[in-house]
Amino acid sequence: MTENGDATPLVQLENVNKHFGALHVLKNINLTVSRGEVLVVIGPSGGGKSTLCRTINRLETISDGKIIFDGQVLPEEGKALARLRSEVGMVFQSFNLFAHKTIRENVTLGPVKVRGVAKDAADKRAMELLERVGIAAQADKYPAQLSGGQQQRVAIARALAMDPKMILFDEPTSALDPEMVQEVLDVMVGLARDGMTMMVVTHEMGFARRAANRVVFMADGQIVEENTPDEFFTNAQTDRARDFLSKILTH
Amino acid sequence: MDELIKYAPDLGLGFLENVKLSIVAAIASLILGTILVAMRVSPTPVLRAAGTLYVNVVRNTPLTLVLAFSALGLSDQLGLVFSETPTTNSFWIVSMGLSVYTAAFVCEALRAGVNTVPMGQAEAARAIGLTFTQSLTMIILPQAFRAVIAPLGSVMIAMIKNTTVATAGGFLLESAAVMKITFDTTGASIPIFLGIVVAFMALTMPIGFFTGWLARRMAVVR
What we know:
heterodimer; A: 251 residues; alpha/beta; Rossmann fold; six-stranded mixed β-sheet; four-stranded antiparallel β-sheet; 9 helices; 10 strands; B: 222 residues; mainly alpha; MetI-like fold; 81% helix; flat
């Protein structure tokens, strides 16, 4: 690897397979994510999008194949795996903020306990990040006191607090009331503009068009098509993708 | 009533022993029970199996047998001696047996609590880079404890009442044993009997109320 390492992809999946019992949920996946790239993964439910996303920080193990993150094969367990996860942010569909901790504590826990950052410094940075996502005024509340959109923005701040090399978004707006989707997408578009490497599993076409560098269409555990957002939405190459798009674009 | 007043000092001292046993067993069983639940939910199969075996053996053995084994087996046969003074030794033997026994119930109450914590909490903890031990102690167990404060209160109440079985472990200074000795010499006395019941209720009922109140106060809102 060269010193700045910019030429090497940040994430590389090589012939990745995953089985859930008899179910073959990831079929021979080959995919790279470059540094600074915003990759949107799209496709029908049950197609393996979330599973794919979750394999990158090993919340899902894989059956065979290889995943390389930042030049290193993913560690299987223990401290090395924890260290890898601290470098890959994750935003979940159901937010998963720590329910017994305040908003501020949610954001400072990782830096303090994983990185050993001093509490004062972590607090200061947490407030900056909460300011950035527009939740600073709620710092001392508990997650249940916030709306879904606010909780998801806190979850993004929690991920950012670790200064991750990449953030995974696993259907970040799917559990939100419609009027709260935009506030979360706006934060995500901001991140994309700032050059954060992102992998986003979503159905939000608007976001894909505004912020994605590339769209990956997944169905039945396979990557069916990869293209730029414009090409993909206006001129999909496969029947499977055209069929899917016709269903979601009509309403 | 006269007998109660006459023997009140003896019975009071006996009851004090029940309180001391309760305090020791409460602390020790909460610690041991927490270690056991950590074993039972750990990713290491050997630890999980050991925790499961412990709980199933100890929880299904009558307390009198646990205490008798502690005194006769561990202390007399295998030479586990806490003190040269027999009463002090049997106090600690009984404390140990009662703690070991109660810990199995603490573990199971906590495990029910762990099951109330959504999967996503552990995933989020792992995703920011916390180790298994950190996720357990900072995210999972704090929420699990809060979910089972009232059931833990019940376990503690049962444990306090179980201090009256200490005789089985050779400890004869606690109130129920004192009562029995008193009855053997003076004949049974309903006031004495009721006096001890009231003393226990004075100890256990506030625990029930307090843990119920604390459970509502500390509940994790989702």
